Amino acid sequence: MSEHVAATVRPHRKTVFGRFISMLWADKFAFFATTFLLLVVLCALIGPSLLEDVAGKQNLRARNAPPFVLDRGWVYFLGGDALGRPLFARIVVAAQNTMMVAAGAVALSITIGATLGLIAGYLGRWPSEIIMRFADVIMSFPSLLLAVIVLYILEPSVGNLIIVLAITRIPIYLRTTRAEVLEVRERMFVQAAQVMGASSGRIIFRHILPMIFPTLVTIATLDFAFVMLAESALSFLGIGIQPPEITWGLMVSQGRQYLTSAWWLAFWPGLIIILTTMSLNLLSSWMRTALDPTQRWRLEIGGKSND
Amino acid sequence: MTDHLLEVRNLSVRFHTAQGFVNAVNDVSWHLDRGETLAILGESGSGKSVSSSAIMNLIDCPPGEITSGEILFDGQDLLQLDNEARRALNGKRIAMIFQDPMSHFNPVYTVGWQIEETVTAHGRPAAQARARALELVKRVGIPDPEGALNKYPHEFSGGQRQRLMIAMALALKPDILIADEPTTALDVTVQAEVLTLLHELQDETGMGLVLITHDLGVVADVADRLVVMEKGCIVETGRPHDIYHNAQHPYTRKLIAAAPGKGVMRQPDPSAAPILCVQGLQKSYGTFHALSGVTFDVRRGETLAVVGESGSGKSTIARLVLRLESSSGGKALWKGEDLLTKTPKEMSKVRREIQMVFQDPTQSLNPKMTVFQIISEAWAIHRDVLPKDKWRARVEELLDQVGLEAGHAERYPHQFSGGQRQRIAIARALALEPELIICDEAVSALDVSIQAQVIELLGKLRDDLGIAFIFIAHDLPVVRDFADRVLVMKSGEIVEDGSVEQIFEAPRKPYTKRLLAAGLDPDPAVQKQRRDARLAL
């Protein structure tokens, strides 16, 4: 890039927060994705306290009630389930468990996976060998089978579910992190830091981690959806979330048997899962651009892109 | 209608970028006659490659856009032809070779297959193709031609690959050969051989040669006519000899003045005390000896140049001394203490005193950190050097010292040009006030005029701050201007060492003589004598 380019970048007058908001606004998709995600988080936080009673009340006259009918009140706008409970209220209430399981499992697996990956990639051959064989063991074992065994032994609960799902996803982060570390550590700026006398910790956290962070976040958003569905599979087998507790995944699997007669039972929670994952994806691709100083101008010029 | 072989008339090309339109070339006209070598000279960003890309239909539209002009070949305007007709001309009548032959060849096919494909792609029978390929490989001087056809690209050296690419380009006896920086990635001795080969082939076939380069020496060696470009415009055209001695345009004059190798040679100061004594330093990879017993001293405040071709082990010295790799034997005494046996903790203290500047500033600066973060990282690592409240002032002072502005501190590396980035890297090296800076090809990735500025900066730092340098380079003229003493290396051993004057004026070893003879002089007359002398050698 020439000096000419440097001169056209505007000086930063706004606060950091203000800059991020304006960069978010520059990418409309990311903006709406963020809005949607905030809504979901809000549901997860206050939904159960507001609608828990409504969501659990059976109304046999509203069994498999069709959507878009307002006769029974607004909570039945999306229809009713097999026991006549309002779908809308159930989706809002289920956000809490779903988010807790998915976010918890993803956060746990990314933390453990990335840490082990950094160790395997940066330290010598032996730690790397041990950690990689450990990852191979997990990967060679069918993850659902592992989950079934563990959850039969342990008590099925939200905490145990998070742990089991996290364990099965660790190798993905571990292998990606290790591969990226092996590449980034050979880059010249890492050597420049070594020459300056930087400690291993500094090199890992200051130089290597920021380079691989966007990749990890992208995988994490994709994994979010996978974890939600895996949780529903476990719930379907009766070893995940136990009714009357609900999650979106559980709602999808409960609605599956009525697919031909009452599609909305599985459709609405499925749609929410798709929208949530898609929003996370859009947000992560925005974040990748916003966190990269060489790409940030695309958002800072405010949509006047020429490509 | 003209009688030129190829004529570019009033060509303008612009590119669509985020900052609006950028004119890559502006109203450019030049022509090429049969049997002639035209050199297009320019620095990076001058648009020297754009007109040839237009000839070869290599400009992507969009983002590129040819706004005006015509390219006449055989009385036809190439820009009016459809893609089908252009493909029939490309490779057959007009061929091109590139800077990096490794990326030009497909690594999964044999070299013979790829040369044959060029021939068969234009409709010749396979049997003829094999014979033609063999003939070509023989002609460009590859040892064991029959065997070479069945080898893969990675089995050849850089110079051989460049020869093979030339063979491939010549497969269909083109009328025009366009060579884009064909020797930039090669060692000097190999560069001289490849240029000689191109010259001979041109005499045999009578083709027109367009040579795109940034190197005045290459121009002086082979060009019949010269076009100088700056910022997308042609600033000067003429015979190289006339332009060299009587340049009209200020830019051309600046370019010629910036060519290194004409300054006064420095004399080493024998009274200075040695600070780094390297004794019998070795490095082997399995049975391959990258360094076999290298011994030398660096004195306080002196500049020691280490020159040699690729694979001579010159960079390995730097990596071993700085403990980026572990050595296989020998000692490196820094003020009497062996660097090679220190624990990481002891080494961390010494690192303050020895710093390094890398070849490619684009890669040696973390792209996610601001200039302030990059420079101040040194003080974050060595806490006792400077209290945190003084960091900002010191960064600004350092930026000023290397010729950048204090306001640049908040920018990121990609917002600077290559030369500016190298200045940032130098400022980072200075942050710890080192006594020795190791420069590993620190200026070889830069344009000539930028190179001269960076060398001047390093010279100033040496005089003002008394810093000693180990200056690793393959470019002899730069070394001649900057160093006090020179080590000449080959295959992991020191061939010859001495003061700059001894090495450049009275080399003793044949290898040093060959190396010096292969260097190109920017003055066409001098270069002609040199070429004759080298061929006689």
Describe the SSE topology.
The complex is a heterodimer of chains A (307) and B (537).
Chain A: H1 3-8, H2 16-26, H3 28-56, H4 87-122, H5 125-140, H6 143-153, H7 158-184, H8 188-196, H9 200-236, H10 248-255, H11 264-290, H12 297-300
Helix pairs in contact in A: 3-4, 3-11, 4-5, 4-7, 4-9, 5-7, 6-7, 7-9, 8-9, 9-10, 9-11, 10-11
Chain B: E1 6-17, E2 20-32, E3 37-41, H1 50-55, E4 64-73, E5 76-77, H2 83-89, E6 94-97, H3 101-104, H4 111-121, H5 126-139, H6 145-149, H7 158-169, E7 176-180, H8 188-205, E8 208-213, H9 216-222, E9 225-230, E10 233-238, H10 240-245, H11 250-258, E11 274-285, E12 288-299, E13 303-307, H12 314-321, E14 329-334, E15 337-338, H13 344-350, E16 354-357, H14 361-364, H15 371-381, H16 391-401, H17 418-430, E17 436-440, H18 448-465, E18 468-473, H19 476-482, E19 485-490, E20 493-499, H20 500-505, H21 510-518, H22 524-536
Parallel strand pairs in B: 3-8, 3-9, 6-7, 7-8, 13-18, 13-19, 16-17, 17-18
Antiparallel strand pairs in B: 1-2, 1-4, 4-5, 9-10, 11-12, 11-14, 14-15, 19-20
GO biological process, one term (chain A): transmembrane transport
Domain ABC transmembrane type-1 (chain A): 95-284
Pfam families (chain A): BPD_transp_1
